[in-house]
Sequence to fold (356 residues):
Amino acid sequence: MKIFNFNAGPAMMPAAVMERAQKEFCNFNNTGCGILEHSHRGSAFQGVLDKTNQNIRDLFGVSDAYDIVYIQGGASMQFAMIPMNLLQGAADYVDTGTWSSKAIKEAKGFGEVRIAAQSKDTQYDHIPAFSEWKLSDDASYVHITSNNTIYGTQYPSFPKTRAPLIADMSSDIMSRRVDVSSFGLIYAGAQKNLGPSGLALVIIRKDLVGRTPANVPTMLRYETYTRENSLYNTPPTFAIYMIGLVTDWMKEIGGLGAIEKRNDEKAALLYKAIDDSDGYFSTPVRKDSRSKMNVVFRLPSEELETKFLKRTSEAGMIGLKGHRSVGGVRASIYNAMPLEGVQKLVELMENFRKNN
Ligand code: PMP
Fold:
């Protein structure tokens, strides 16, 4: 049976990427050994790194004003690295969920954290309107979470801010076209749209590198990574190689324009199934803030949710259980999820509603 993996991350990878990695695993580019056996200082890996950086520049529209680096420790490490490197005095944070809150908690150790806007008071059911944000004049930066993996909300667009805008794009990186030039720093744990877990992709505007206080350790300074092209120490070479394959695949299927269109189509299909169910399926998320990556919904009772999750997994659709903190159902439909997977889910939803 064909399995469709709806996990939130680590998540489904494109089938073509998995097959290519398997094919090249023991013999990369006719070198007689696998990429994970190659020195990070050798030409085989250097080629992988350069290609991966270029793919990201081409696909995402990253100009020379930015450096692209890979840093271990996932997105959670960035929660601390950002304030360590960039918080001088105060910073503005927008609290739209669990991951924003974790970023806020880390920043508090390094300066004054001001909550410019939040949706906590309404169980994180929306992205606060930009017109309501209280941004401060002296903030070092403004931090947002572009897609809230647990609550299923997503910024439909981004604000223009005076202070550098920093975005945690872990769960929607390169899922749509974005004007990178309106950000000071973009970061993302790789395990949803890019590749293996354990590292973060960081895109940082060059003028922000080098503001770091002298007492910050070498491995926690952005300049260590930008100066050495992510090769100060041994980077996670295999993970970077996988990001290279995923970005090759993104180019092959037509780039971010085509990917965005696919993602719009998948999300529209799933939300339509929810909206057309006469309230049988319901989402707590406000319509203007619905995520196209993590579609969160409920059934009339927890018993029915348990039964639904059993049915879906019997039908080969795994990873649909909502995050342990909110319950319900969550369908994570990142770039690698084909339309076919969503169609299959929607079909099962309709049948389930009729029979239960
Ligand atoms: N930010 C967001 C939006 C996430 O979804 C996650 C992980 N699910 C994280 C941060 C944390 O990422 P990591 O596990 O790589 O530290």
